[in-house]
C-alpha cells in the first residue's frame, strides 16, 4: 500500500521515472518503465535487482549489447489481426530488422562461460517460453532485401511484370529522346532546353507557337503560358502500358504480402512475447545506465522490514551536485525491531527533510527493482506499506487547510499502520499553536508506536525529542551543526536530539540583539537552558570523538612500532648467530691450517737437521702467514663495523618545545620531530607515521653520545643492508581474500608501511568482490593515509572491483 496517491511526486520518483524513459531506446522500453511500480514480493524484488545488477556489469565490462532496430509493432499487429489484411512493405522491413535484433538479444542473454554455465543467470530467465520461428526470417528474406525493398524475384509473376515494365521504359525513353532531338533540329525548341517531368511522365517543353507541329498530350504549361509540356503521341501509348504494368505490379505485391501476413497471423501471440522481451531488455538497460550515473548498488536484501544503510545518497540531489562538481553528505541510518522510529531534530535548512525524503525515495526505488546509491554492504528490507506526510496539502475544493490535511493524513496512518509499515512525517504537529500541536503530535506518536511500525519523523518540538530513548522503539537523531562557522554539516547523528540553534543563526545574520534578548525572556530560561544543553551535548560528543580518534591512532602507531621493534630484534639476533657461526667456522679453518703449517715446518727443520738458512726461511714463511691472518681479520672488521643503536636522553632545558625539536612522549623511548604546533596540540613525525599529542605529554631529547664513538651514518650501513633485502623480497601484490576485516587491516598496515619505506610506486590489493565489506574497510583505511595519491579499482579485464590499485605520492 502506498499513501498518498501523489507519493511519487512528493518523493521525486516521478523525475526518476522520466530519467529512465529518456534513457530508453524505444517506445517498448518506455512502456515497461511506465509499468514500474511498488512491489512487495521478496523473490520478485530480488530477481528485478539481480537483472539490473547483471546488466550494470555488462555495461561496465564494455560488452556490446544489441541496440539498433528497436520497433514497436503494436499498431501493426492490431491492423493485421483481422482476415483479408496485409502488411505494407515498409512495415515488413521494420518487422524483419527488429526480429533480427530480438534474435541477437536472446542469444546474448543465453551466453555461457567456459564451463557451459550461463553468464547471466537472472537475464536468461527472461528468455524462457520465448520462441522465434526461423521460417519467419526465411520467408521475409525472400520478400524483402537488405535495403528494405521488395525483391524483384519475390514471385515468378512479379519478376515477369518487372522485366516487361523495364523493357517498355527503355523503349519509351529512346522514343522520346529521338523525338526531342528532331524537335531541336527543326528549331521547334530552344537548344538549351531539356526533357522534364510532369505528372510522373517525361515531356518535351515546346513554345506555344509550335504546338501544332507535335502530336501528343499536353500535361502542363509554364507560368507565363508561353511554353507547353507535351508527351508525344508515340510515347504516350507506351507509358500507358507501363502504367498498367505498375498496377499489375502492385496487385502482385499485395498478393505476396497477403500470403505472408496469413502465414504470420498465427504467430502473433508468440511475437508479442518476443517484443515484450525487447521492451523489458530496453527498460533494464535504462535502469542499469541510471544506476551507473548515480552510483546505484544492490544492497543485502532481507524479506523482513529493516533499514541499515551506509553512505546512502539522495539520487536527485547527488546528480544535481555532481553536475556542479559539489559533494553530497552521505546518510548513515539504522532502523530495526528495537529502534524502529527515529525523531530527527536540528536547525532549519540542516537537512532534516532531505534525510526523510532520501529514506522514502530509496526504499520506493528498491521495491521497484532499482539499484540504489548506497554501500553494497548495507542491509535493506521489504515493507508492505509506505506512507508519507510532507509538504502542503491544502485544498480549496475539499475545504482543507494545511493543518487539516496533516491531521487527515495522521488519521490514515493511525488506522492502517502495522509492523510492516514505513511512515515518513515531516514536521509532525506543525501548522497549529505550538503547545496544542506538540501535544497532539506526542499523542499521535505514542499511538503509532503501539502498532510497531518503522518511521522517520522530523520536528522542532522539545516534547517529541524527550520521547527518544525513553519510549521503547523510539530513538533520537540530530542533524549536526558547525557552531564555529554557523553552517549545517548535513550529517545525521543518532542517539541524541539536536538543537535548533535559532538564536545563534539569528545572531550570525545580524539580527538586533535587543530583540533576541527580549525573545529569550519570552521563551523562558528553561527553554533556553534546554537548547544550550543540547548544544553542549553536541560539542562534548564531537570533542570525545576527536580524542577517541587520536587515541586510536596513537595506540595503532605504538602497536606497529612494537611489532617492528620485535621483528628487528629478531632479525638482529638471527644475524648475530650467523656471524658467530661464520666466525667459529673461520677460526676452526685458520687453526687447522696453522697446525698443518707448524707440523710441516717442524718436520722440515728436522729433515734439514736444523740448518740455519732453511730454519730461517721456514720461520719467515710462518711469520708471513700470521700477518695474512691478522690482515684478513682487520679487513673483516672494517667490512663489519659494530652496529649503532641510537639512544636518547632528556634535555635539561626549561624552554618550551618548538617546531623542529626532537621529542618523545613521556614513558616512551622512540623519538620524533615536531612538524606543527596548533594550540595545545603538536603533530609529531615518527618516520613515515604522524600523530597528534598534547604538548604537556612531550619532552625534548637529544642523542646520547656512545662510548664506541659510532655515528648515525655508521648505523645506516646495517640499515641499508636490511632495506636492500626487503626491496628484493617485496611483492607489489598482496592477497587479502578469505581474511577477516581486523586481520586484513593489521597485515595491510605493515604492508603499506613497507611500501612507503621502500619508495614503491604502486601496489595492488586482492580482496575479491563478495559482499564488499572487506573492500570498503580497506578503502576507508587507505583514504586516511596522506602518502597515498589515488585509489581505484583494477581494469575489468584484470580483476575489476575485486582488486584495488594504490598509487603513492611523488613516485
Task: Characterize the largest beta sheet: strand count, sense, and whether it forms a barrel.
Answer: 7 strands, mixed
Low-confidence stretches: 394-399, 637-645, 706-722
Task: Tell me the radius of gyration.
Answer: 45 Å
Task: Give a count of the beta strands, DSSP E runs of length 2 or more.
Answer: 25
| Proportion of beta-strand residues | 15-25%
Alpha-carbon distance between the two ends: 58 Å
Q: What is the strand arrangement across the widest sheet?
A: 1-11-12-13-9-14-15
Question: Helix content range of the residues, please?
Answer: 40-55%
How many helices? The count is 23
Helix/strand/pairing class, anyone?
alpha/beta
Chain-averaged pLDDT: 81
Shape: extended
Describe this structure in words.
With 811 residues, this protein is an alpha/beta fold. 50% of the residues lie in helices and 16% in strands. It contains 23 helices and 25 strands. The strands form five sheets. A seven-stranded mixed β-sheet has the order 1-11-12-13-9-14-15, with helices on both faces. α3 packs across α11. The protein is extended, with a radius of gyration of 45 Å. It starts with a strand and ends with a strand. Mean pLDDT is 81; it is low at 394-399, 637-645 and 706-722.
List key phrases describing it.
six-stranded antiparallel β-sheet; 23 helices; alpha/beta; 16% strand; 811 residues; 50% helix
Q: How are the SSEs placed, and which strands pair?
A:
Layout: E1 2-3, H1 7-11, H2 13-23, H3 27-34, H4 42-61, H5 74-80, H6 89-109, H7 121-124, H8 134-143, H9 156-185, E2 196-198, E3 201-207, E4 216-221, E5 227-232, H10 233-264, H11 268-294, E6 300-301, E7 307-312, H12 315-323, E8 331-335, E9 339-345, H13 352-366, E10 379-380, E11 385-389, H14 402-416, E12 421-425, H15 434-450, E13 454-458, H16 462-465, E14 473-482, E15 487-494, H17 502-508, H18 513-523, H19 525-607, H20 612-639, E16 648-650, E17 662-665, E18 671-678, E19 681-686, E20 689-694, E21 698-703, H21 712-729, E22 733-735, H22 741-757, E23 762-766, H23 773-782, E24 788-793, E25 803-808
Helix pairs in contact: 2-3, 2-11, 3-11, 4-11, 6-8, 6-11, 8-10, 9-10, 19-20, 22-23
